[in-house]
Amino acid sequence: MSVIKNKKATTAAALCLAVVLFFCSCGIYKGDDEKSEKQLFAMDTVIELTSYGKNSEAALEKVAEKIKELEKELSTTEENSAVNKINTANGKAVAVSGNVLVPLRASLDISEKSGGALDVTVYPVVKAWGFISKDYRVPEEIELMRLLDKVNYKNITVGDTGVVVPSGVEIDLGSVAKGYASQVVCEMLKESGVEGAVVSLGGNVQTVGRKPDGSKWRVAICDPDNPDGGITGTLTVGEAAVVTSGGYQRFFERDGKKYHHIIDPSTGNPADSGLKSVTIVCPDGTYADGLSTALFVLGLEKAMDYHEKYGGFEAVFVSDDGTVTVTDGLKDSFAPS
Ligand code: AMP
Ligand code: MG
Hints:
- With about 325 residues, the protein is an alpha+beta fold.
- The chain has 8 helices and 17 strands.
- The chain has one domain: T-fold, CATH 3.10.520.
- The structure holds adenosine monophosphate (AMP) and magnesium ion (MG).
C-alpha cells in the first residue's frame, strides 16, 4: 500500500458531484465521429451517459429506459417494486428476476466476507434516521437497539421459489443498486457495438472500451472536504467500475454534528471508522458498489485485511485526517492532486 500523508486536495474542478470524468481534449476519434450524451435523473441521482461510435444515440436511449426499469424494480419506495413486495410479504417467498437476485447475492457474499459490515437488512435503521423520508432525526439509542434486533443478513433466504425475509425484516439494495445498474448498462453498450462509453450514476462510474483516441479513461476522485469542486486525485483506468462511498455524499446536521447515510450495522449509527471516503476500482460494477460501502464501514485496517484476503479489486481510501492510502495495484494509475 502507498500512503500519501495529509494530502489536501486544492485543485478546483468545474464540477465534482462525486467523481468527475476527464475527456482528453486532444482526442481524435478515427471511426464514425459519433459521440452521444444523455442525462437523466433516476435512482435518486443525476445520471450521465456518454458513448462513442456507431449506434451510440440509439444505444443510450435503450440504456436510459433500462435504468428506469431497474429503478422501478429495485426501489424500496415504489409500491410495486420487487423489493417492496419482498418487504411486505410477511415471510412468504417472493419470486424475483435476476435484477434482484444478482445484486442481492453479491451483497450477501460481501456481507459474509466483511462480517456484516454490509447488510441489506439495515433498512429500518436507515429509515429511522430519516434518510428515506428526508425528514432527518437522531433516533434514541433504545430505538436503534430495538431496530437492530431484526438486522441480520442471515435472515434472508434466497431459494428456488424466490426470496424470503421474515416478517419485520426489510431489505434495501441501495448500497449495490447503482453499481448493478452501471454493470447492466455497460454490458448493453458493449453488445450494441459502441467503441467506448462512460456511465456515471452519482458516485458510480463505469467505463466501456477506450477513449476515442485509444487511450485510457481518467476518473477523478472527489475531495470529501470540497465535493463541489475539489479533487483528491485522478485514476487512469481501462474498462472498469470506479465507485466511491463517502459520508459527504448524503448527510444532515444537528447541533453542529454531521450524520451521514452509511450505517454501521453493529451500532445502528453512521459508520465512524476513521474514513471520509472509499473508492473501489473493480471489473464488476455491483461488487465495486457493495465493496465501497462495506469497506467504508470497516475502516482502513480491516479494509486492507479484506483486500489482502479476497482481492479482486483495488481501492483508494481518504482518512479523516486527510491521509490518502492506495492499494498497490493502483500505484501507477493513481495521481494525487
Ligand atoms: P452507498 O452510497 O453505495 O455507499 O450506499 C449507501 C446506501 O445503502 C444508504 O443510502 C442506505 O440506503 C444503504 N446502507 C447504509 N448503510 C448500509 C450498510 N451498512 N449495508 C448496506 N446498506 C447500507
Ligand atoms: Mg455502495
